[in-house]
Amino acid sequence: MAFTGSCHCGAIAYTANEDLPTKAMECNCSICRRKGYLHHFMTPDRFELRGSRDALRVYTFASHNIRHQFCSTCGCAPFAEGKTPDGNAMVALNLRCTDGLDVHTLQIIPYDGASK
Protein backbone atom coordinates (compact mmCIF):
# COMPACT_ATOMS: atom_id res chain seq x y z
CA MET A 1 0.00 0.00 0.00
CA ALA A 2 1.49 3.35 -1.04
CA PHE A 3 1.95 6.29 1.30
CA THR A 4 2.56 9.99 0.72
CA GLY A 5 4.49 12.88 2.19
CA SER A 6 5.39 16.48 1.52
CA CYS A 7 7.17 19.59 2.67
CA HIS A 8 5.22 22.04 4.86
CA CYS A 9 3.88 24.23 2.02
CA GLY A 10 3.11 21.29 -0.30
CA ALA A 11 5.32 22.39 -3.21
CA ILE A 12 7.37 19.19 -2.81
CA ALA A 13 5.31 16.04 -2.44
CA TYR A 14 5.94 12.37 -3.04
CA THR A 15 4.31 8.98 -3.21
CA ALA A 16 6.22 5.97 -1.91
CA ASN A 17 5.00 2.82 -3.61
CA GLU A 18 5.49 0.44 -0.69
CA ASP A 19 4.04 -0.21 2.75
CA LEU A 20 4.30 2.39 5.47
CA PRO A 21 7.52 1.75 7.42
CA THR A 22 7.53 0.59 11.02
CA LYS A 23 11.23 1.42 11.60
CA ALA A 24 13.37 4.49 11.05
CA MET A 25 17.08 5.16 11.20
CA GLU A 26 18.14 8.09 13.35
CA CYS A 27 21.64 9.29 12.42
CA ASN A 28 23.72 11.54 14.65
CA CYS A 29 25.86 13.11 11.91
CA SER A 30 26.06 16.90 11.83
CA ILE A 31 23.16 17.50 9.42
CA CYS A 32 20.82 14.72 10.56
CA ARG A 33 21.19 15.74 14.20
CA ARG A 34 20.45 19.38 13.43
CA LYS A 35 17.52 18.63 11.09
CA GLY A 36 16.00 15.83 13.19
CA TYR A 37 15.74 13.42 10.27
CA LEU A 38 14.15 10.00 10.70
CA HIS A 39 15.28 8.07 7.64
CA HIS A 40 13.60 5.37 5.59
CA PHE A 41 15.65 4.15 2.63
CA MET A 42 14.12 2.91 -0.59
CA THR A 43 14.95 2.28 -4.23
CA PRO A 44 14.23 5.12 -6.68
CA ASP A 45 11.78 3.01 -8.70
CA ARG A 46 9.37 3.08 -5.70
CA PHE A 47 9.62 6.87 -5.31
CA GLU A 48 7.39 9.23 -7.28
CA LEU A 49 8.01 12.97 -6.96
CA ARG A 50 4.90 15.10 -7.35
CA GLY A 51 5.51 18.74 -8.12
CA SER A 52 8.40 20.39 -9.87
CA ARG A 53 12.08 19.81 -9.20
CA ASP A 54 12.36 23.56 -9.78
CA ALA A 55 11.02 24.03 -6.22
CA LEU A 56 13.91 21.99 -4.79
CA ARG A 57 17.24 23.18 -3.54
CA VAL A 58 20.11 20.78 -2.90
CA TYR A 59 22.75 20.65 -0.21
CA THR A 60 25.68 18.22 -0.16
CA PHE A 61 28.65 17.94 2.17
CA ALA A 62 31.53 15.63 3.15
CA SER A 63 31.60 12.82 0.56
CA HIS A 64 28.80 14.41 -1.52
CA ASN A 65 27.15 10.97 -1.87
CA ILE A 66 23.79 12.22 -0.62
CA ARG A 67 21.93 15.15 -2.16
CA HIS A 68 19.81 16.58 0.65
CA GLN A 69 16.72 18.04 -1.04
CA PHE A 70 14.74 20.83 0.55
CA CYS A 71 11.90 23.13 -0.49
CA SER A 72 12.97 26.59 -1.63
CA THR A 73 9.77 28.08 -0.16
CA CYS A 74 9.32 26.52 3.30
CA GLY A 75 12.73 24.93 3.87
CA CYS A 76 11.41 21.48 4.82
CA ALA A 77 13.49 18.50 3.70
CA PRO A 78 11.18 15.58 2.84
CA PHE A 79 13.77 13.42 1.07
CA ALA A 80 17.33 12.99 -0.14
CA GLU A 81 18.79 11.12 -3.09
CA GLY A 82 22.12 9.45 -3.44
CA LYS A 83 24.05 6.22 -3.38
CA THR A 84 24.24 3.43 -0.83
CA PRO A 85 27.68 2.45 0.52
CA ASP A 86 27.85 -0.25 -2.17
CA GLY A 87 27.07 2.26 -4.96
CA ASN A 88 23.38 1.60 -5.64
CA ALA A 89 20.95 4.48 -6.18
CA MET A 90 18.67 5.21 -3.23
CA VAL A 91 16.12 7.65 -1.88
CA ALA A 92 16.08 8.50 1.83
CA LEU A 93 12.69 9.69 3.01
CA ASN A 94 12.46 11.92 6.07
CA LEU A 95 9.61 10.15 7.86
CA ARG A 96 8.80 13.33 9.79
CA CYS A 97 7.33 14.58 6.48
CA THR A 98 5.13 11.50 5.93
CA ASP A 99 1.38 12.07 5.88
CA GLY A 100 -0.56 10.41 8.70
CA LEU A 101 2.42 8.73 10.35
CA ASP A 102 2.84 8.99 14.12
CA VAL A 103 6.64 8.87 14.38
CA HIS A 104 6.33 7.86 18.04
CA THR A 105 5.12 4.43 16.88
CA LEU A 106 8.32 3.77 14.90
CA GLN A 107 11.10 1.52 16.10
CA ILE A 108 14.12 3.85 16.04
CA ILE A 109 17.41 2.35 14.89
CA PRO A 110 20.36 4.54 15.95
CA TYR A 111 23.22 5.05 13.49
CA ASP A 112 26.53 6.62 14.48
CA GLY A 113 27.15 8.79 11.43
CA ALA A 114 29.16 11.25 13.51
CA SER A 115 31.99 8.72 13.72
CA LYS A 116 32.07 7.97 9.97
From TrEMBL:
Ranges where the CENP-V/GFA domain occurs: 3-112
Protein name: Aldehyde-activating protein
Keywords, alphabetical: Metal-binding, Zinc
GO MF annotations, alphabetized: carbon-sulfur lyase activity; metal ion binding
Keyword rRNA-binding on entry: no
Record family assignment: Belongs to the Gfa family.
KW rRNA-binding (keyword) present: no
Coiled coil ranges: none
Domain of life: Bacteria
Lineage: Bacteria, Pseudomonadati, Pseudomonadota, Alphaproteobacteria, Hyphomicrobiales
UniProt xrefs under Pfam families: GFA
